[in-house]
């Protein structure tokens, strides 16, 4: 299918960032789990109640929690589950993946990525240099989705179309090599068990890391809960689910089943202290 404009705009933003210079090289503090106070915001289901701001709660009449700057050394690992019910959902997932990667890269924040389809790990990188990771993920999106480069050309100025096209084509070529090499040596059988591989990977990380799972939540809720429990035993997990799969069904009965399924999964995850949000980065 031909991708919707949403992901084209995200790709254009990433291309502008990568064609620029001097950004994303030096990390700056971002909010997360840490010790230095950042600000106070309204409670979101899944937040720990250990950090309630009681004064703000009394003032505003609703639960408010404190946020802290995350220590830079912790890093973030993005997990992108590409499974989607249709083109609109795929577009939203890809867009959120790109925007989240870009948000981290703009801050110079160390990141890694894993892309999978539920059955196989398609790409796994622990590169951590945000600009390098951004090139890898942009190359993957360009290669895996039917992106018309002219659509990006029209959105970007003042770069000449030839310069931009050359840059984007190079990303696509580099991505093929990166995917084949997978950046790290992992056993073939582990490629077929994405969540088990990710849990094993997380256990090898000594410092606490933030894991962000971008997914339509296609798996059974028991499997998702087990994965969340394993990750959260040592790290932080946030699930980003930006799609509305019931809008891509053929009839009302199927739409209702999808709506109830997604609601049940999110409610169950929330009850088990797993944070699920629509998006982290606007755009």
Automatic annotation (TrEMBL):
Q: According to its UniProt record, what is one Pfam family this protein matches?
A: DUF58
Superkingdom per UniProt: Bacteria
Question: Which first-to-last residue range defines the signal peptide?
Answer: none
The DUF58 domain covers which part of the protein? 39-85
Q: What is this protein called?
A: DUF58 domain-containing protein
Annotated organism of origin: Aerophobetes bacterium
């Amino acid at each position: 299918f031909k991708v919707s404009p949403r992901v084209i705009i995200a790709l254009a933003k990433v291309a502008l960032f990568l064609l620029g210079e001097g950004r994303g090289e030096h990390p700056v503090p971002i909010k997360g789990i840490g010790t230095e106070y950042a600000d106070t915001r309204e409670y979101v289901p899944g937040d720990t109640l250990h950090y309630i701001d009681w004064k703000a709660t009394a003032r505003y009449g609703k639960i408010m929690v404190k946020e802290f700057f995350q220590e830079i050394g912790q890093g973030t690992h993005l997990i992108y589950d590409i499974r989607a019910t249709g083109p609109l959902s795929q577009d939203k997932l890809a867009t959120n993946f790109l925007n989240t990667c870009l948000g981290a890269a703009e801050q110079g924040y160390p990141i890694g990525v894993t892309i999978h389809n539920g059955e196989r790990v398609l790409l796994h990188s622990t590169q951590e240099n945000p600009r390098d990771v951004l090139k890898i993920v942009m190359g993957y999106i360009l290669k895996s989705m039917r992106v018309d480069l002219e659509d990006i050309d029209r959105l970007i100025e003042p770069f000449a179309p030839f310069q931009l096209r050359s840059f984007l084509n190079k990303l696509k070529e580099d991505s093929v090599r990166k995917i084949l090499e997978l950046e790290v040596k992992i056993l073939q059988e582990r490629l077929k068990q994405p969540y088990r591989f990710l849990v094993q990977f997380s256990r090898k990380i000594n410092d606490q890391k933030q894991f962000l799972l971008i997914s339509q939540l296609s798996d059974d809720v028991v499997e998702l809960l087990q994965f969340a429990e394993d990750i959260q035993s040592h790290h932080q997990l946030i699930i980003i689910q930006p799609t509305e799969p019931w809008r891509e069904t053929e009839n009302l009965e199927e739409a209702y089943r999808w709506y109830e399924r997604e609601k049940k999964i999110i409610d169950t995850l929330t009850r088990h202290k797993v944070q699920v949000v629509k998006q982290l980065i606007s755009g």
